[in-house]
Amino acid sequence: MEDIKSRLKLLETDLKKLESRLKKGFATGTTKDWEHILHQTRKIEELAISQIAILKLQDIKTT
C-alpha cells in the first residue's frame, strides 16, 4: 500500500507542476512529461490489478 501511496504522490506532484505551467500560460508539458505521467499511471494500475487478484484469491480460499 505504501508503494501505491508514494506513486500517487509522485503523480500528483507532476500534475501540479503541469497545472502551474498552464496557469502561467505555458504549454501544458512536454512529450517527456506526459510519457512520465503515463508510465507512473500504468505502474499504479498494474499494482492495483495484482492486489485485486490477490484479494480475490484469498476470498476464494476462505470460502
UniProtKB/TrEMBL annotation:
Which domain of life does the protein's organism represent? Bacteria
Name this protein carries in UniProt: NAD-dependent aldehyde dehydrogenase
Per the UniProt record, the source organism is Candidatus Scalindua japonica
Upper classification of the source organism reads: Bacteria, Pseudomonadati, Planctomycetota, Candidatus Brocadiia, Candidatus Brocadiales
